Amino acid sequence: AGGAARRLGGADKPSLQVGGRSLLDRVLGACRDAHRTVVVGPRRPTVRPVHWVREDPPGGGPVAGLAAGVRETTAGTVLVLSADLPFMTAGTVRDLVAIPSDHEGAQLIDGQGRGQPLAAAYRAEALRRELGLLYAEHGRLSGLPLRLLTGELRLRGVRQHAAAAFDCDTWDAVGVARARIREHGRVLDEWIDTVKAELGIDLDVDAAALLDLARDAAHGVARPAAPLTTFLVGYAAGRAA
After folding, report:
1. What is the spatial distance between Cα 19 and Cα 190, in angstroms, rounded to a whole number?
2. How high is the pLDDT of residue 185?
3. Bridge partners (DSSP) listed for residue 21
4. CATH 3.40.50.720 correct for 6-183
5. How does pLDDT run across 184-198, given as a tens digit for each residue?
6. What's this model's pTM, rounded to 2 decimal places?
């Protein structure tokens, strides 16, 4: 999460909202089963706690960022995700980390048939080996293209989740992501999950009943009565519990 987002005019890309959740929180939600979660980049608010580190030097590029993250884990398998993948899911993550025994990693293949090294899982030992070789050859890791590192690894291509490789590098792509989520009717469910996580509550939400109540209050009283009424009912329910 340490890129400069030049094609977005320097906007803080990981914090951009898509369907009521930041891009970074969407990616973190997909890998919530990780034993340890490390975010490489400037600190930002996140729905769940993570371990923060910075690449050396800050803004030094993906190889330096990956090295900084790998140093913070002792896991045998490392999942590497850029912070701008709005359609990454837990199911995709499960398929990535299921690395065949004769491979050193697995990466998503996008709709154009290209491998995505920042949507991938790697054997940590292989990553550390290649990072060491790169440093020995160049005397630095900053500024090096990522494919210098991953191009030497035996990677399995995961093709059945091409949509998960969609990234938000431009404002047009951000608009497409927002439109897709609205079209698939997922935005309300995702928003409810986000609010529950933010408030630290875990309960089943009867969305249909709440929407019926809000509709009746809005049309039978006045539009501002809808959120006020649902708040009061929720408050009463909380006290009763």
Report:
1. 7
2. 61
3. 18
4. no
5. 666 777 778 778 877
6. 0.76
Domain ranges of the chain: 6-183, 188-240
User: What is the per-residue DSSP string for the chain?
Assistant: -----GGGTT--GGG-EETTEEHHHHHHHHTTT-SS-EEESS----SS--EEE--SSTT--HHHHHHHHHTT---SEEEEE-S--TT--HHHHHHHH---TT-SEEEEE-TTS-EEEEEEEEEHHHHHHHHHHHHHHHS--TT--HHHHHTTS-EEEE-TTGGGG----SHHHHHHHHHHHHHTT-HHHHHHHHHHHHHT------HHHHHHHHHHHHHHT-TTHHHHHHHHHHHHHHHH-
Pull the structure tokens for residue 13.
């890309």
Q: Greater confidence, 214 or 185?
A: 214
- Which of 121, 117, 80 lies closest to 100, judged by CA? 121
